[in-house]
Amino acid sequence: MRTVLGTLVCVALGTLATAAPASPAQDSAPNPPLAYHGSAGQMVTVTAPKPSSTTATLIAWQRKGSQWVRALGPFPAFVGTQGIGEASETTSRTPAGVWTLTEAFGIQPTNGTRLPYRQVTGHDWWVSDVKSPHYNTHYSCAPGTCPFNEAAGEDLGKAGPVYDHATVIDYNRSPAVPGKGSAFFLHVSSGKPTAGCVSIPGADLDAVMRWLDPAGHPVINIGISPQ
């Protein structure tokens, strides 16, 4: 991730895009575009045409026996301004790989997601101070009183509409390696590439978040489309 005006931000600044209606599932959906060999019952794929691309396609998949069936999408997505690949605290790149989706948050009340949900205020932070033992975790404290460098962190409640709703991407969380990157989320699109997160229009995000089921142990699979 990178810092902007002294504050780490995952989202890009820009005019908010109008949320598109959620796309219905298609019965004749192809197989998922990215390989996955785990046991999850739900998978969100995010694929870009090349590593430097800042736009991608997001599709939600449900496991049916030994097959994957498209549940939602495809939806247009933005990724980092430096594309997809190896992420770090000093880049604006979306991490490539498979990560669990276990919790959600938002400035607004819950959109009906079944994931554990936290409605955030100006006292809710995501810690990106590499020297802090709380690195890459949520922490609650009043501004000016936090036990970490607030300039190297994100005040979730002050991010604006892009964080009306969001799902945490569990990249670099267990264990959190300082400097490998923090604060990666699936959130509402601003109509611009991000500083490393994945973003989609608000209505599409609501549909995905309502579909996510903790019992399905959902994962997000981020990578480059096969040629």
UniProtKB/TrEMBL annotation:
GO MF terms, alphabetically ordered: transferase activity
UniProt cross-references to Pfam families, sorted A to Z: YkuD
Coiled coil ranges: none
Span of domain L,D-TPase catalytic: 47-222
Species per Swiss-Prot/TrEMBL record: Amycolatopsis carbonis
Keywords from the UniProt entry: Cell shape, Cell wall biogenesis/degradation, Peptidoglycan synthesis, Signal
Secretion signal, residue range per the UniProt entry: 1-22
Alphabetized InterPro entries for the sequence: LD_TPept_cat_dom
Descriptive protein name: L,D-transpeptidase family protein
Pathway: Cell wall biogenesis; peptidoglycan biosynthesis
GO terms of biological process kind: cell wall organization; peptidoglycan biosynthetic process; regulation of cell shape
Active site: H187 (proton donor/acceptor), C197 (nucleophile)
